[in-house]
Amino acid sequence: MRKWLPIALALLFAVLVAACGGETRPSFKLTDITGARFGQNFHLTDFNGQPRSLADFKGKAVVLFFGYTHCPDVCPTTMAELAQVMQQLGADAKRIQVLFVTVDPARDTPQVLKQYVPAFNPSFIGLYGDAAATAAAAKEFHVVYQKQSDGGSGNYSVDHSAGTYIFDPQGRLRLFAGYGVPATDYVHDLKLLLADQSD
User: Fold this and answer.
1) Beta bridge partners of 102
2) pTM of the full predicted structure?
3) How many CB atoms lie within 10 A of CB 138?
4) Are the C-beta atoms of 177 and 166 separated by less than 8 Å?
């Protein structure tokens, strides 16, 4: 009996330490990148011609996705998934802003973005920049994209990173979602971010 006493005491101590100084960060389903040194801001233009940066959306959780309107699969699938997320959030959807950043500004004009992006949800906003601004935003978020040769037809594709970044209402980058993440995971984590209003 005595030989087990030190082990029992050690286990009890471990439990007490865990209870007193345990994990205080939320248990996210998506990839937690809180404290990342990239993805701090962007400077682009929305499809209404208004300059935009992250500060414009402070007070809302921001969901940021890079893609292009001619994308045959990843982009429309992700945008449709985010539309489902907004439906499942109910009243909380008003506190979320989804932003679609084009990596194909040559074809994705403001008019094209204005037709494509809100078709998934009226609150979604499309952002674009010239070649330099697009490259700067992509670099800031570690997004890779490359236009594929079209043989002069104009019907080219753009290979690009497939992932979504999520900021909390204080404007801090917190989460990354890879392609194919279910809507329920987004909903779970966004609710946690909305509930956590600490500085």
Assistant:
1) 67
2) 0.84
3) 19
4) yes
